[in-house]
Amino acid sequence: MARPKIALIGAGQIGGTLAHLAALKELGDVVMFDIAEGTPEGKALDIAESGPSEGFDAAMSGTQSYEDIAGADVCIVTAGVARKPGMSRDDLLGINLKVMKSVGEGIAANAPDAFVICITNPLDAMVWALREFSGMPHNKVVGMAGVLDSARFRHFLSLEFGVSMRDVSAFVLGGHGDTMVPLARYSTVAGIPLPDLVSMGWTTQEKLDAIIQRTRDGGAEIVGLLKTGSAFYAPATSAIEMAEAYLKDQKRVLPCAAYCDGEFGLNGFYVGVPTVIGADGIEKIIDIKLTKDEQAMFDNSVNAVKGLVKACKEIDPSLA
Ligand code: A3D
């Protein structure tokens, strides 16, 4: 059986890391597309030359031509610009919306059956626009944010409790931005919910609140340290986890920016919700009941996403 084909649209910091991880995990052959001539070709060759030491079998190539992504099983989109210090994700909207148009059309024309994972920011609006421009089925176009946000939350919690990250599970809902909603009561250490751990005296509510705020600011913390761009190792790992769930029909339960059509009381918006990813893409959205306080935080986050989608429609009236 032929190896799966993975197209990476954007060969920058995240794109290069995605290609390296896909090769190391032997998820399939990788084609990197980027408008910057030489960048995808150079990264593909460099990664291919690590193959003899790593011992992986995966073909790597770079291109400026959409025809070369033909028949891709998975497309991961990072094309666009990333944040610099002092910028919010929303500042990227105007530039990246134009990029989503060319990318959406390029994927639809050449790889219409692919599972498409968008990473470009501002995420919840860009994945919505990418889906609109591509016209592809909603269950096959999804945004990566929740896996990363919950990984950050899990990492900080493991430091606080002094336990393995593997035994910490965390739940983050809502838009990928300052209004994201980390859900403490569904986040656990080996199944013990965080509020119980506070009652048991393992941590304090103040410490937990600080961890939740650090999770919300997780992207900005790294932008502030790097100064020249934004996070790329953990974002790439998160998207690879989603791609693998699709390619191997793993039925993983992962928080993703998925198209809600009735779920969570939303009609026609992409927002971070718990999903099941398998061979049909987003196979299910798990529509959990929120408490009054959680619902208020979720509504606030959804309103921020709605504002960004409205701005997209104003910039490009073909989306209205
Ligand atoms: P960067 O290293 O700048 O790579 C972006 C690449 O896109 C560059 O190589 C560009 O040449 C290329 N590009 C620009 N326009 C086009 C186009 N029209 N077609 C094809 N390629 C194009 O950025 P990065 O890899 O660090 O980040 C990529 C995106 O991911 C940015 O928008 C970030 O804000 C976003 N991001 C999202 C998350 C989430 O959790 C959602 C996390 C981190 C970064």
TrEMBL record:
<comment type="similarity">
    <text>Belongs to the LDH/MDH superfamily. MDH type 3 family.</text>
</comment>
<dbReference type="InterPro" id="IPR001557">
    <property type="entry name" value="L-lactate/malate_DH"/>
</dbReference>
<dbReference type="InterPro" id="IPR001236">
    <property type="entry name" value="Lactate/malate_DH_N"/>
</dbReference>
<comment type="function">
    <text>Catalyzes the reversible oxidation of malate to oxaloacetate.</text>
</comment>
<dbReference type="GO" id="GO:0006089">
    <property type="term" value="P:lactate metabolic process"/>
</dbReference>
<dbReference type="Pfam" id="PF02866">
    <property type="entry name" value="Ldh_1_C"/>
</dbReference>
<feature type="binding site">
    <location>
        <position position="89"/>
    </location>
    <ligand>
        <name>substrate</name>
    </ligand>
</feature>
<feature type="binding site">
    <location>
        <position position="152"/>
    </location>
    <ligand>
        <name>substrate</name>
    </ligand>
</feature>
<feature type="binding site">
    <location>
        <position position="96"/>
    </location>
    <ligand>
        <name>NAD(+)</name>
    </ligand>
</feature>
<feature type="binding site">
    <location>
        <begin position="10"/>
        <end position="15"/>
    </location>
    <ligand>
        <name>NAD(+)</name>
    </ligand>
</feature>
<keyword id="KW-0520">NAD</keyword>
<feature type="domain" description="Lactate/malate dehydrogenase C-terminal">
    <location>
        <begin position="148"/>
        <end position="308"/>
    </location>
</feature>
<feature type="domain" description="Lactate/malate dehydrogenase N-terminal">
    <location>
        <begin position="5"/>
        <end position="143"/>
    </location>
</feature>
<dbReference type="GO" id="GO:0004459">
    <property type="term" value="F:L-lactate dehydrogenase (NAD+) activity"/>
</dbReference>
<dbReference type="InterPro" id="IPR036291">
    <property type="entry name" value="NAD(P)-bd_dom_sf"/>
</dbReference>
<protein>
    <recommendedName>
        <fullName>Malate dehydrogenase</fullName>
        <ecNumber>1.1.1.37</ecNumber>
    </recommendedName>
</protein>
<feature type="active site" description="Proton acceptor">
    <location>
        <position position="176"/>
    </location>
</feature>
<feature type="binding site">
    <location>
        <position position="83"/>
    </location>
    <ligand>
        <name>substrate</name>
    </ligand>
</feature>
<dbReference type="InterPro" id="IPR011275">
    <property type="entry name" value="Malate_DH_type3"/>
</dbReference>
<keyword id="KW-0560">Oxidoreductase</keyword>
<feature type="binding site">
    <location>
        <position position="34"/>
    </location>
    <ligand>
        <name>NAD(+)</name>
    </ligand>
</feature>
<dbReference type="InterPro" id="IPR015955">
    <property type="entry name" value="Lactate_DH/Glyco_Ohase_4_C"/>
</dbReference>
<dbReference type="GO" id="GO:0030060">
    <property type="term" value="F:L-malate dehydrogenase (NAD+) activity"/>
</dbReference>
<dbReference type="Pfam" id="PF00056">
    <property type="entry name" value="Ldh_1_N"/>
</dbReference>
<dbReference type="GO" id="GO:0006099">
    <property type="term" value="P:tricarboxylic acid cycle"/>
</dbReference>
<keyword id="KW-0816">Tricarboxylic acid cycle</keyword>
<dbReference type="InterPro" id="IPR022383">
    <property type="entry name" value="Lactate/malate_DH_C"/>
</dbReference>
<feature type="binding site">
    <location>
        <position position="121"/>
    </location>
    <ligand>
        <name>substrate</name>
    </ligand>
</feature>
<feature type="binding site">
    <location>
        <begin position="119"/>
        <end position="121"/>
    </location>
    <ligand>
        <name>NAD(+)</name>
    </ligand>
</feature>
